[in-house]
Amino acid sequence: MKPFLLLATRPEDAAAESEYEAFLRYGGLSERELVWMRLESTPLPPLDLDDWSGIMLGGSPYTSSIPDGHKSDTQLRVEHELSRLLSVLIPADFPFLGACYGVGTLARYLGAKLDDTYAEPISATTIEVTDDGAADPLLAGLPPSFEAFVGHKEAVSKLPDGAVLLARGEACPVQMFRVGANLYGTQFHPELDVPGILERIRIYRDAGYFDPAEQAQVEASVRDVDVTVPQRIVTNFVARYARD
User: Using an 8 Å Cβ cutoff, are 146 and 136 in contact?
Assistant: First the structure.
């Protein structure tokens, strides 16, 4: 099988490593089958799409919608490299799955508005599958609604032109969309389970996602939530696009 590629932008080693392990686990992939590139430390090299089954982009502490003058040189480089990559992936309709930061990166490239209107604190939220989502292979076998973990300072205010809405939420109307036949973005984290979100809460306690004084309450609010459905999106993505 040609490997999948996971692009990461988390400077915190523990968060980056657990994200990779989650995509390995829920994708049913070995380390040989999921190549990991950490763009915050290594520039993205030229890619030959024929070498890959698909590309995934994980979450990030980066906020894309802030003015460029407030972004680090590293963030600006990463954004430029991801835009260059999408300029190739979108015309090729190449398999892509962007989670949280990934959905914003895809939407922003397509000209959609990204701002803090529909930001959500770290929490579990109910995701509602649309009719188009129910017919989509990545959501095949999933119930019409399910719980998923979120935590984002920005979100898509309006669906990009030509995109298909696959899932929505009460507090954030664009939770998942598809571009073309094979490029996907999810605002929620399809790779996160309860241990994963608890680790993120500890790592990012001072990153502005919640009041650090309320860490115990935030942990308690997610500890007993049944979040076992969204990970099947990662499983379905790998099953659909794995190729020799």
Answer: no
Q: pLDDT tens digits, residue range 182-196?
A: 999 999 999 999 999
3's CB contacts (< 8 A; 6+ apart) are 32, 33, 34, 35, 51, 52, 53
Question: In this structure, what CATH number is given to the domain that contains residue 141?
Answer: 3.40.50.880
φ, ψ for residue 121, nearest 5 deg: -70, 165
Contact 120, 152 (CB under 8 A): yes
Domain coverage including residue 97: 4-241
pTM greater than 0.90 (yes/no): yes
Residue 153 CB-half CA count within 13 A? 13
Nearest-angstrom CA–CA distance, 173 and 108:
16
